[in-house]
Every structure is written in structure tokens, then in C-alpha cells.
Write a structure and sequence with these properties.
alpha/beta; Spore Coat Polysaccharide Biosynthesis Protein SpsA, Chain A; disordered C terminus
């Protein structure tokens, strides 16, 4: 069963927000934030939201998932000191469910979707509302401006904002303002989310991309605004980064199954690289084993040529690291090959091994405006 927004919110009607946008008034906004295990960054992230230079009313609804750290204690303290903060429970811990719950508990017709480890720049909401007004878009997003603290995080941040890491998507690498396929986080007209039935709660990852795809299918305009640069803290360890990108790859394959025709070469590059590196390594090892066993003929030596594929890949990422060294401290540049290999191989293997059982039933469209009870 496809689960979408499970309950109606008390938000004002969409014409009210449209009138505010049309007249130049600052409409009230609801910031919705899914949070889980964010003790390290949540206080700073909330402070950046509540400190926005924005003339309209603002509320912050945080959907808290089960956390292993002190996130709940931090949020309890923050909510006790500012009446604009409302904390609700998200027992599932899933992002899409958290956002749907926060939407249902929010009141306003302009929705600002924020992550617990993202740092909004001053003027972010004002710029987004101005862009909604000027372009007629239903969702506006900017850049995921990754910034690291440790050398490894700095290497990951460089890779994430480079075409060598995740491709040339505007929300990672920048570009001119204009229509886009998706938006990083996003500032929405609520009616656009309601029209397509909310976030698809079967998606544990890629829920933003999937929602924006349905919004575009319904005729909505998604807009990239490069002035909206959001500071993002990358994962701090190789293990955390690998898990993150493995899940990205797995769920991007699900999007491709659910929405045929949405895949492109940028998404196929990591799985192609992972497949070629693995195949080359296996063939090369077969050749070495044959030689060690004393097999005769030319075949064992020919099989060892398979090592050219992983060695070629290694040479490529080393060359990229040399290029990155012009822009990064030496300690960070030295970790670029590790960051790139982790991102590419994890994303690629996740894509290649993604089971159909992640979202049972195959491709399915949601019913616009429907609730979970109607699905």
C-alpha cells in the first residue's frame, strides 16, 4: 500500500497565501524539519531558522524520530525557550513520514523543508518567497553547499560540490537560476504538495526527488535559485559516507522503476564504474590464480589484463585528487581519492543490488490529494 499524507492540516486555504505572494506581503511560513540523531548540529540548525531576517510569521515544526543520542533533550530545551517551536513524535524514524506528520501539524500555506544538519543562511526564506512570487514556481530550492570541518569532511565536501563526485546537478555544483528537475530541500506552496498527495512514505531515500517529479508531472514549476546556499555538514567517517551513498544508489534505482524514463547517464556512471572495477578485479584474480596453479597457455596472462580496469579507475581518482590539491589543504586533498571511491563504489553497488522488494508492487502513481486511508 502506498502511504501518503495521512491527515489533513489546519493550514489556511491556498488562495490566502497566493494573495500575499501577489501583493508583496510577507506570508506566514511553516518550517518542517525531520530529525533523528542530530545532537551534534540541531541547536545550530534551529538557531539559523529562528534567526532568519524575515518579516512574516514563522513557526517551526520538528518531527523527532527515535534517536540514540541526546537530540530529544536538546529539542526539549529549545522548545521550552521559544514558543515558535513545536516538537512532534515520528515513531517510524522515516524522513517522508516525518515530513508528512510535520505538514499535518503545521498551519501556514508556505512550507520550508529543512534538515537537522543543514544551516540556513540569513535571508534564505525571504529570498525563497521573493522567488516564488517572481517566477510563479511552486517549489524553489538552492545549493547544497557542503562544508567540512575535518580533513575527511573537507574532502567529501569538495567531492559533493564537484562534477567528479555526484555529477553536474545544479543543486550540488551551482549554475544559473532557472527551471530544475528537483530542489534541495525546497520552499513550497502548500497546495502543490497537497495536489499530489504528499510525500510517498514508501521511499526511505530520494523522497524529495520523487515528490518533485510528481509535482512536475502535475504541471508545477520547480525553480533553482543559486542565491539560496545552504551549508551542509558531510558525514564524518568512511563508514557513515559509505552507508549514506549505498542507500542513495539503492533508492535511486527504485525511483527509476517507479518512474520509467527518469534515469540518465549521470545516474548510470557510478554503477557502470562499480561493475567494471569489480569485473576487472575478478578477471585479473582469475588470471593470477591460474598462473599460480601452473596453468599453461596465454589465457592466464591475458586474464590478468583485467586489472587494467581497477588500476585505471585508481589512476583517474588520483589525477582528480591532484586537481583538488590546488583548492584544498594538503591533508584534505590526500583524502579525496578515498572520498570519491567510497561515494562511487557505494552508490554504484547500491544501485546494482537494489531489490524490487524495497517498494512492492512495481511502478505506481499516487492519487492526487488522496489520504492514506483512501489508498
Amino acid at each position: 500500500m502506498t502511504r501518503v499524507m495521512s491527515q489533513k492540516s489546519d493550514a489556511p486555504s491556498s488562495p490566502a497565501a497566493s494573495a500575499d505572494l501577489a501583493t508583496g506581503l510577507a506570508p506566514p511560513v511553516s518550517v518542517v524539519m525531520p530529525v533523528r540523531n542530530e545532537e551534534r548540529y540541531i541547536a545550530e540548525s534551529v538557531g539559523r531558522i529562528l534567526g532568519q531576517d524575515y518579516d512574516g510569521e514563522l513557526e517551526l515544526v520538528i518531527a523527532l524520530g527515535p534517536s540514540r543520542d541526546r537530540t530529544a533533550d536538546v529539542l526539549r530545551s529549545l522548545a521550552g525557550s521559544d514558543p515558535r517551536i513545536k516538537v512532534i513524535d515520528n515513531p517510524t524514524g522515516r524522513i517522508a513520514t516525518a515530513i508528512n506528520l510535520a505538514l499535518a501539524a503545521s498551519r501556514h500555506a508556505v512550507i520550508v523543508r529543512v534538515d537537522g544538519h543543514s544551516m540556513l543562511p540569513d535571508g534564505y526564506i525571504r529570498t525563497a518567497v521573493d522567488t516564488l512570487r517572481e517566477t510563479g514556481a511552486v517549489n524553489v530550492g538552492g545549493m547544497m553547499a557542503a562544508e567540512g570541518i575535518t580533513p575527511f569532511q573537507q574532502a567529501v565536501a569538495w567531492a559533493m560540490t564537484s562534477p567528479f563526485g555526484v555529477g553536474a546537478a545544479k543543486n550540488h555544483t551551482g549554475g544559473e537560476a532557472g527551471p530544475a528537475e528537483t530542489a534541495y530541500m525546497g520552499v513550497f506552496r502548500r497546495e502543490a504538495i497537497d495536489q499530489v498527495g504528499g510525500y510517498n512514505e514508501e521511499f526511505q531515500v530520494a523522497e524529495d526527488w520523487e515528490l518533485n517529479h510528481r509535482i512536475r508531472q502535475a504541471g508545477g514549476l520547480i525553480w533553482f535559485q543559486p542565491a539560496m546556499r545552504v551549508t551542509y555538514r558531510p558525514r564524518a567517517t568512511v563508514a557513515e559516507l559509505g552507508i549514506q551513498y549505498f542507500r542513495y544508489g539503492r533508492w535511486r534505482r527504485v525511483v527509476a522503476r517507479q518512474h520509467p524514463g527518469t534515469i540518465n547517464l549521470r545516474y548510470l556512471a557510478p554503477p557502470a564504474a562499480a561493475a567494471l572495477v569489480a569485473a576487472g578485479a575478478l578477471v585479473g584474480l582469475a588470471g593470477l590464480c591460474s598462473l599460480a596453479a601452473g596453468a599453461g597457455g596465454a589465457w592466464p596472462e591475458l586474464l590478468t589484463i583485467g586489472f587494467a580496469l581497477p588500476l585505471g579507475y585508481a589512476a583517474g581518482i588520483l589525477a582528480i585528487a591532484a586537481y583538488a590539491a590546488r583548492r584544498l589543504p594538503l591533508r584534505a586533498a590526500a583524502k579525496v581519492p578515498l572520498a570519491l571511491a567510497t561515494m562511487h563504489m557505494s552508490w554504484g553497488s547500491g544501485f546494482l543490488t537494489s531489490p524490487r522488494s524495497l517498494v512492492p508492487g512495481g511502478p505506481r502513481r499516487l492519487t492526487p490529494g488522496a489520504s492514506a486511508d483512501a489508498q
